[in-house]
Amino acid sequence: MSENKKGMSFLVGIDQYNDPALKSFKGSSARGVGILKRLLDQPASQYWPPQEEFELVHQVTYEELEAKLTKFLSIEDYTDVLIYFSGHGYQFRYQGDKEDKGFLATSNSEISPYMKGETLTHQVNGLAFNMIAELIAKRIKEAKYLKSLVLLIDACHSGHAITADALKSVLHESYIDSLHRSASDGFRYCIIPSSLINEESWIEGELGVFTKTLIDVLENKEHGSITAEGLSNAIKSSLKSPNQQTIKSAQAGSILLMDYPSKGQQKPVQDPIYADPPANTEIKNPYQGLEAFDQNSHDFFFGREVAVDNIIALFTQSAFVPIIGASGSGKSSVVKAGLFPTLTAQDPNWVLMDMKPGADPLGRLKSLLTTKLESLFKTATGEEALQSFESEPTQETFAPLLEHLPQDKKFLLLIDQFEETFTLASQIEDPSRQKKALANQRIFLDIITSVPAPLHIVITLRADFLEPCLKDDGLQALNLFNVS
Fold it and tell me: What is the C-alpha separation between 356 and 176, in angstroms, rounded?
């Protein structure tokens, strides 16, 4: 968050619904907004309570919510924002789509006319995560003055914000794009949903289970400084209802939410004294906490030069290089803060790309490659190869795509947290959707294990997830995962 400047908040708690299929609450959503507003009014809060027009409670129509959110995200002075939503959520699949879409319900949402048994075939006046993604993307890519976003969602099926919708993709791409700018112009985000995509969110007592846990964490002064990532971890640990669990948050970059003073006997830390620093000098904090080092913080990344040299040496033996280690051992850091800057310093013609598999690794790969490579093709045949891969990403369409890449460039793709390739598909409860996800997983693995020049692939993998790689024929054929 910008130094000495608090962020702004947008709080929504919808309790009243016109559609009988969306049962009205007894004030729980608005009550949660009220408590959060009081918490944000404390000196420790790093966000201001919402302006009156950006506190929406009880009965909120689609038109009002869309207009207010659009206005909120268009205010240039709001560089760090926190958005909280509490109310109903639902999902359904448009005809012709391959997967469900997630929606936040508004007071004038209509779903009951479109129910066929347990299946929803259409909807009216639900705010799609796609719409939120478009608003945020416009704010980031056109105006470029949004620095951080925290999105807290207490609604059924809110896991769509991370696993099955456009929002996560927009935020992650914006974060990656911001790595090429200065640290002060970077972009950070954190999404914390209340439930998995196929789960409902529950109310116990006067508050939603998720919101109560959220408030318990934020008002606990014993925590001292509370970051968005720390909040996510605390909620995931505390929320142990058999009917509801939060998914791992989508986050990139540490965002401070509450900064309570220390309760111990330790004297307050004094501000550092600098001897006449040059004008306009930006003082950077070298301590990353639990965050991975990246290109913005590579100046403070030391001691892994041998590891970086070893990775580069492995490129001469294989186009596919795995980096395996325990959780927290610095796998991502050695690539983003070590390998990436070293390669670009040696040769500015490197094109560096970064992705996490998520629940749809094939879709992520297609989106990343089409976005990053589109401007590099100089011939009609190259553009046709890209279009073929975009329309049907397979091993057969991937090879021609690489053949038409410019020969004066070198390409590296980092697949961070590679274990997600195998773990997230198991969370899909619907058998047909899980079958489709596993089929796409197989295509993704076939693509990345048959990599010709000029593309290099580096993966980071937790050592305790090595077993699926050992069982996969394509990965095993690379002879890179053998354990003696």
Answer: 11
Residue 397 belongs to what domain range? Answer: 295-476
> Which residue type sits at 125?
N
Rounded to two decimals, the pTM is: 0.54
CA distance 277 to 66: 46
Span 236-247, pLDDT tens digits: 777 655 455 555
Residues 41 and 185 in one domain: yes
Count how many domains the chain has: 2
Q: pLDDT of 17-54, one tens digit each? A: 999 999 999 899 999 999 999 999 999 999 999 999 99
Assign 3-state DSSP to the chain and report helix, strand, coil percentages, each to 5: 40, 20, 40
Taking alpha carbons only, the member of 413, 421, 424, 418 closest to residue 361 is 421
pLDDT tens track for 48-89: 999 999 999 999 999 999 999 989 988 888 889 999 999 999
Pinpoint the alpha helices (H) of 268-360. Answer: 305-314, 331-333, 340-346
- Mean pLDDT, the chain, integer: 79
The alpha carbon torsion through 134, 138, 140, 145 (nearest 10 deg) reads: -140
28-40 helix and 209-218 helix, angle to the nearest 10 degrees:
10
Interatomic CA distance for residues 337 and 308, integer angstroms? 10
Residue 74 lies in a domain: yes
Query: Has residue 8 got a pLDDT over 90?
Result: yes
Amino acid in position 269: V
